[in-house]
Amino acid sequence: MEIKWLEDFLALASTLNFSKAADERHVTQSAFSRRIRQLEAWLGATLVDRASYPSRLTEAGAKFVPVAQATLKQLYQSRRDLKEEEGTDARTIRLTALHTLSFTFFPRWMTSMNAKAGPLYSRLRPDSGSMEENLNSLVDGECDFLLTYAHTQVPHLLDPQAFEHRVLGHERILPVSAADGAGAPRHSLENGAAPFPHLSYEKSSFFGQLLLDLIGADLPPSQRVHEGSMSVGLKAMAEAGWGIAWVPESLMAAELAAGSLVRAADPRWDISVEIRLYRARENRRPVIARVWQSLETTA
Questions:
Q1: 295 and 238 inside one domain
Q2: Cα dist from 230 to 98, 140, 153, 243, 251, whole Å
Q3: How far is the C-alpha of 199 from the C-alpha of 21, rounded, in Å?
Q4: Which residues on neighbouring strands pair with residue 228, listed in sequence order?
Q5: Among the three residues 54, 84, 114, which one is the final residue of a domain in this structure?
Q6: Is residue 220 within 8 Å of residue 168, measured between CB atoms?
Q7: Residues in the chain with pLDDT values less than 50
């Protein structure tokens, strides 16, 4: 038995085409077919009905698909675990972080953690822009930690028996606009029923769901002129004068100080969110335990 036979078989099961599967596996079709036959010989069963067109799996082949998938998953995980026990991997923490937090909060937090639990290496997984995909990266084991904003209005649907979190800080989300010549907001929520140009977040993002659920019904009429998934993009559009955007305060400290962005409403329209770090309880890597213990000590 060779691992590549299982990988070949799953490629064929996905495409049901020997030529396409061989291309996907970067081998000639004759070599690919020979390896599938070697797998069948090892199992003592025919996995593919070659008399039909397009090819189809036999009953034995269909039953073997989940077996091959589970076997490869366990082998890959074992290899990762063994690598993580030695060398740089033993000191590496993998994180999925919201885009804003990855450069407003993460660098200082990582410096603090390195002093308490280091030496550490970090690997950041890019923010997908979707809450669901970010959560799935933790659920599927693609990262050790999820660094995210949180609010009771937008619950993170994670099983508390399997996942836990720590609150690392808080952030204010402020409605802002570009300033006019007198330093007043070019666009404002204080104009009663007058429609205002609105820079919105994609509905699948954390802020998109938060704003819609928390204050959407109370907002004056708005005219959406732009939609994006990243706060930094909405901040730039607001600074260019396109409309009002809700932006994390830490992301625009310089712009607020310089006056290129100003509040577009009184503080009752501000939103306070938590900064949370999530992890899977079953993650038993020593480096993850050290970081988590450091957080408990800090708390």
A1: yes
A2: 9, 24, 20, 16, 11
A3: 45
A4: 201
A5: 84
A6: no
A7: none
CATH code, domain carrying 65: 1.10.10.10
Instruction: Specify burial of residue 37 (Cβ count, 10 A radius: 0-12, 13-18, 19+).
Output: middle
Tokens 């082949």 belong to which residue?
61
Taking the complete model, does pTM exceed 0.85, yes or no? no
Cβ neighbours around 15 below 10 Å, total: 16
Longest dimension (CA), the chain: 83
* CA–CA distance, 55 with 50 (Å, rounded to integer): 6
Count of Cβ atoms closer than 10 Å to residue 39 Cβ: 22
Q: Report d(CA 199, CA 222) in Å as an integer.
A: 9
Give the pLDDT of residue 32: 92
CA dist 78 and 30 (Å) reads 32
Token pair for 56: 């189809």
Helix, strand, coil proportions of the chain in percent (round to 5)?
45, 25, 30
Cβ partners under 8 Å of residue 20, min gap 6? none
Residues 237 and 244: their CA atoms lie apart, in Å, by 9
Domain that holds residue 65: 3-84
C-alpha–C-alpha distance, residues 297 and 200, integer Å: 39
Residue matched to tokens 């996905």:
14
How many residues does the structure list for the chain?
A: 299
